[in-house]
Each structure stands twice: as C-alpha cells, then as structure tokens.
Amino acid sequence: MLSRMLLDSLGRRLSRKALSVLAVWIGLTLVLALLSLSVDVGDKMNLELRSFGANITVEPLASAIPVQVGGHRLAPQTVPSYFDEAELPKLKAITFFWRNNILGVAPRLRASGLVKGQVVPLVGVWFDVPITTGSEPLVTGARQVYSHWSVQGAWPTRADQCLVGSAVARKLALSPGDTLTLVAGRGEVALSVAGVVTSGDGDDGAVIAPLSTVQGLVGAPGKVSSADVSALTTPENKLAEKYRQDPRSLTPDEYDRWYCTPYPGAVAKQVQDLIPGSAARVVRRVSETQGMVFSRTKGLMALLAAVTLVVCGLSVTGILAAAVLERRPEMALLQAIGARRADVLVLFLAEMAILGVAGGVLAAFTGPLLGRWLVSVVFGSTADVHLAVVLIAPFLGLGLAWAGGFWPVWKAVNQDAAQVLHGG
Amino acid sequence: MLAHMIRHSLVRSAGVTAWSLATLTASAALATIFVAMSIDVGQKMTSSLRSLGANAVAHAGQRRDGVGAPVTADSAAWERAHGLAEAKRADLVEFHLRVGTLQGAPVAIVTADAAGLARMTPYWGVNGRRAAGQDECVMGRKLAQVLGTSIGATVEVRLDGAAHHERYRVTGIFESGDEDEGRMFVSRKPRPEEARFTYALVSVPGGEPDIAAFNTSLAAAGAGIELTPLRQVLHGERAIIGKINLLTGVALLAVLLLSSVGVTAAVLSRVIERRKELALLQALGAKRHSVVALLLSEGAAIGVAGALLGYAAGTVLSQVIVRQAFGVSVTPHLAPFLAAVVVSVVIAVLAASIGARRALRMETAMLLKGE
Asked: Is A68 in CB contact (< 8 Å) with chain B?
C-alpha cells in the first residue's frame, strides 16, 4: 500500500519533484566540490610553498670559504671547488627516499668573465633541463626554482642565449635582443641576450648563461659550484631542533622518526649522503618562512572550508524545507481520509529520501568534477577524484533531505487538517 | 501602518522568518569573515613574517649602478637612512664587514649590534648562544667546519695586513644556509680608519610596494642609500596570500549562490502560505504596487536584521580565526560591514521580488473561494 502510494506520489507533479532533485543536485554539487577542494587544500597549499624557491643548497665540501658580498669577492679567490653535475639526477632516482619531495634543482657554476671590457660575475645554470632518472621525469632549472626572478624579455632556450642581471644591463646598456661577447677562461663566446633578470640578490650583477656553455667556456665540463634544491618539507619541531643541537642526543626511535619525516634538515642530510663530497645546507630564512606560512594557513583554510560547508548544507536543507511546506494540503487530505500521522510522516520522508538520494547520486558525478576544476583554477594543478567524496554523496543527499523535510512534515501532520484544507 | 503589517506578517509565519533570517545571517557572517580575511590575512601574514627578520637589504646607491667592487656609503648617509626608517616604523640594522685573516685564510668579520643582529636573524639555528660581549663572537657552521673551530674556542683575527689583531671567544655556531654561514659576527666596533663595507638589513612593515615607497623617500632625501627587496621571500609570501584570497573568493561565491536559492525558496513558501492574506489585501483595494512594496519591505527588513546579526557573528568568528592563526586581533574595517549589508539585503530583496512576482500572478477570486 505504502509503496503504491509512494510510486503514485512520485509520478505526480513531476516538474516539482524534478525541481527538488535539481536543488539537491546543484546544492550537493557545490558542497562536494568544496569538500574535494578542502580535502586537497592542505597538500596543495604546502605545494604552493615551492613559490619560495630553493630551501636547500648543496655545495662541495670546501677547504676554504670565499669572502664575498652579494656575489662580489672581497678577498683573492681561493681554489674553486666543484662536484659532478651527473650526481644531481640521483635526487629523482627511485632509490632516493625523498625523490617525490624534490620539486626542482638548479645547479650553478660560478666564474667571472669580461663583457665590453668590464669584469662581470658569470653564472651557469640549467634552463628547463629534463631529469629522466627514475619513474618521475622532471623538467627543472632556474625557471622552476627561481620563480621570484622577474624576467623582462624571454628565458633562454638555446645554448647561445643568456640572461643579464638588471645591474649589468644598466651598466653595459644591454637589452633583450642584443648580442654580447663574453670572454672567460679558455676563450670567448657570442651570446644573445634573451632577457634581463631582476632577482633582488647577487644575480642582478651577473651574466647568467646555460650551464653547458659556461662549463665549456671555463674548462670545467660536467662540474658545478653548487646546486639549489626546492624540496617539499614539513615545519621543524622539537625533535628536529633536538637533532640540530646534537644528533647524538636522539634515541634510535627518535632518530628513525626524524629520518623518515621530511624536515628540511632530514632531507638535506639525505641529499648530502647521496652526493659524494657535498655539504647540503638548509636555507633557514626560506625554510623558517615556509614553516610559519604553512602553520598559519593550515588551520585557517580548514576552518574556512568547514564554515562554508555548514552554510551550504543549511541552504540546501532550506530549499527542501520550502518544497515540503508547499505540500501541506496534500498531507492534510491524507489525514482527513484516515491516514495516521506516522503513515504520512513515513510516506513523505520516504519520498524525500528518494529525491535526496537521486540528487546525491547525480552530485556524486558532478561534485568531484567541479572540485577538480576548482583545484585546477585555484592551484593550477590537477587533483585526484576522492572516492570517499563520491561514496558519501548519496548519504549526504539522504541526510540533507531528511534534515530539511522532517521539521515541515512533522509540523504539517500536527496541524489541524480541516484548517489546512480550508486554506488557513 | 506598513511597519505594523510587516511586523505582524513576520511574526505570524515565525518559522519561515526564522529560517530565512538564519540563512541570511549565515551568508552575511560568511561575507563578513571573507572580506575581513581578504583585507587582514595579507597584512597579518606580512607582519607575522616580519618577526622572521629583514625583507630588504640597504647599501650604497652607487652599487646598483655598477658591477664592480661594492661601495660604502658614509656615516651621514646612514644617519639619514636611520631617520627615515624611524619615520616609517622600519627596523634598520647596520652591518660592517671587514676582511681579516684567521689561521692564514681570509675571513669575513661582520660587526653588528647584538640585539639588532638577533632581530634580523631570528631564523638562524644557533648551537651554544649568541655573542653578547665585546670579546665574543658567533661563527657560521661552514666557517667553523673549515677552521675546525668549536664552541668555547678562542680565535685570533688579524686585520689590516696583520698589523692589528683581535681575539674572540666563540660562544655559538650557527646555521643559516646562506653566505652568512661563512662569516663570523662580533659586536666590537671597527676602528674608524679600518676599511669596511657597510650594508644594512631592513625590516619594512608591508610588502614590496612599501619597500619601493621607502626607496623613493631615501632617493628624495638624497641619502645615497638604496634598498633591494629580498624578492625570494616576498614573492613566496605574495603567491600564498593570492591563493588564500582566491580560495575565499570561490567559497564566498558558492555560499552566495546557495544562500540566494535557499532564501528565495523560503520567501516563495512564505508567499504560498500567505496567498489568501495577499488576495484579501487586493480584494480590499490594495494596489498591486502596494502588495509588491509590502513584500519587498518585508524582505528588506529581514535582510537588514540578517546583516546586523551576520556582521556581529562574522566579526566574532573572524576574531577567533585570526587570533588562532596569527595570535592578534582583527583590525576593524568598514568594508566587512558593507559586504554583510549588501549580501544580506540584496539576497533578501531579490528573493522577495521573485515572491512578489508570483503573488501577483495568483487569481484573487479563486484564492478567496479557497481553490
């Protein structure tokens, strides 16, 4: 009897039922999209910290330290020390524990040269170099690691192109499209100026050319002076501080925990172990800033997502409540012809449940897709469809339908049927 | 009379009124939170990051024009820079770099006021303690490793081609990961005749535009000093704040969309409930525009109430969120209040106008007959 009445009720006034399903569908699509976004927001925001650039620097173990300010040497040059460029792809090798945390690598070879008779610092770097070792290919170099560089013109794409620092460009009257002759070490080379770079550090006073070009020019094939590494890390805590103060003070358990957590120090230590003859150091100004930003934004975004979800949920509930209120005369008529209050309540809640689940099932398809799109718009990256979000959708539809429907139905069945039928 | 009718109508369908009010209050609260956030998060983030030290380096103006040896500005220039920094509530700490010889190797020795150094380099990881006395120093880990120096050791630095020497006790070894790690820091002032390169680390409240404004002031005052923003940190900071604002914008849009639909549904159900009352009003001679005015006024009344409640709730919630994230209070602004009023009133009036349109389509006679 109940099922027949339910089917009959669903079959009537189809446009109204479609509107209710549509309301749940649209509402839940937005709710699920925001839910997908909030599930991803922590990881994505952490990934966004890569915009701070390199947080680890790798240098050869040196016997002397150059005395310099902003890239300019104040004391006679000591014997330069290098390590092998060929070691760097190991950072993405399958055998390296933190390979997935390495977001970018930019090796540098520092030298000096003559341009228009002036001595200028010369820096060789990677520009969009693919690292093919391991399962995760990575195109990396200055463009990816130094995202704070502001380049007027274009990034070099060929071995005979270079960037010039803004101070050099001013001093030597160079602009994009010009050609300069660079004399260094074993010869000279003509380089086309692809762009003028403003970095806010010593690179503003340097000529920056592809690494292979500088290696050939100064006679140091396959060698680099240092490498800047951008790594995904977690903010340091007491354990990391304890290790930094005295590594021997950690118990074996603590050491294992430290070693297997991507603290900047732990990642740097393992990078150092990976590259023979190197010393990897955490750039603490960057890593501390990343840590502070991460801790500030983590709770903030979670809180905002939660508040938004609650308000969106309330709105969907309100839409359904309004839909039920319109049908009070129908409920009153059922009671007038002998239906018990419980029967009416069950009938309408069952109907609401079917409409809610139908809207939820539709939203299970559209919500995560909208969420993916939002992630790509906000973070410019792809996101996975979370199975949990898809599975929860019909239940969320059911919950919202009942939450929105119960109160108006309960109110209606407790009203005087005659008065409702009379239009009071 | 109109006010009386509105009050009566709102009280009579208290359930729907409460529901509409709750939805509008929630929307207005979220609008308040999001607008307060978009104004405040950037400022609070920037100011909390200032606790991590400098965001610019100051040096003699000529250095940026050339690629040769760095140039040191005179003390009068630095005094002017200090005066301007004070006026702009910026923190400027001078560093004097000399080249000395330690164990036969050239070493950079930097003199800075101990308190100023601590303010500008709180991110250093110091083993031991920072130097406090005139005969103490802190040494970068890289330099300490090369020299084989440990905490507690005494080092002798030769200056001016070995004509003069200074002795320091190493109180701490620090990690910074930048070129400071190859230097030693002391607080004893260099002798006036000693060659040195002077630069300063500056913490300017705000971001790159504020640093640019400071630079303009320095140029206008003819200080001969220029600021170079530390772009790496500032760029990252700007990128993150941009993402937060984009996220709050997306969330606000979703909330506004759903709130509009929710309130419209509530208003329509109110119109349906009151169809007889509205028909009776028309039968008694009320003009169509009077009915529309009544419904719109009701909408506006709920909208204003929702805005006030929402603003109050939103302000409290923003305080909680900002205090939790940054440990400081939200700065009061007019914009969140205006956002709450606009969001709540516009949604309510829009929904009421849809309800009014529906009310006018009803057949008065049929409704009064009870059909």
From this structure: yes
